């Protein structure tokens, strides 16, 4: 629960760059949010680390989506998510990250449609695969939470970066704008996945509940 609130706190702060005070009392002081000690540091190095963390989290989410989509019979969406997860690397560019986010959004829609389809039934193997996907989705959310300090530090340092350096920081800048929406969507997606699981007699793994 605490880590998920950290994700939402970071997302909210990024959308509305105000003081972190008052945003989610439960996470005041958590994960060193609001710190600006990284300002003036090696922005390229900070960006590299931020991209690595973002890629790791998104690969986890894409693999989770692949399993859940497969369990729901959305084979094309499952294959798309897996292919994108395999293609995503730690040296991803802004375009690579944007493509991965686009795929993630498309597959999320396919999963949602599968969950809402009338008369949907899952056999034992499909339930197992869906549960595995939920666990990976939870791990993805926890990895997003683990980005909090790095995200906030880079965002703070980026605000005072030289205009001449900005072209070299496009990947990090992209994450600053995309992370808020992605983190909120992921949190909502996991909640929806758990609700579907409970309604269809699918065991909810600890990694999924741990993330909420």
List keywords for this structure.
single chain; 212 residues; DUF4142 domain-containing protein; signal; mainly alpha
Shape, per Cα inertia axes = elongated
Give the count of helical stretches: 8
State the low-pLDDT regions, or none: 12-41
H/E element order: HHHHHHHH
Total number of distinct structural domains: 1
> What percentage of the residues does DSSP assign to strands (E)?
under 5%
Mean pLDDT: 85
Number of strand segments: 0
Estimated radius of gyration: 18 Å
The end-to-end span amounts to 4 Å
Helix content: 55-70%
The largest sheet is: none
Classify the secondary structure makeup into a structural class: mainly alpha
Signal peptide: 1-21
Organism: Microvirgula aerodenitrificans
Protein name: DUF4142 domain-containing protein
Keywords: Signal
Structure characterization notes:
The protein is an all-alpha fold. It has one domain. Helix content is 70%, strand content 0%. The radius of gyration is 18 Å and the shape is elongated. It starts with a helix and ends with a helix.
Write the topology of this structure.
Blueprint: H1 2-15, H2 43-71, H3 75-87, H4 94-116, H5 124-146, H6 148-158, H7 170-199, H8 206-210
Helix pairs in contact: 1-5, 1-6, 1-7, 2-3, 2-4, 2-5, 2-6, 2-7, 3-4, 4-7, 5-7, 6-7
Concise structural overview:
With 212 residues, this protein is mostly helical.
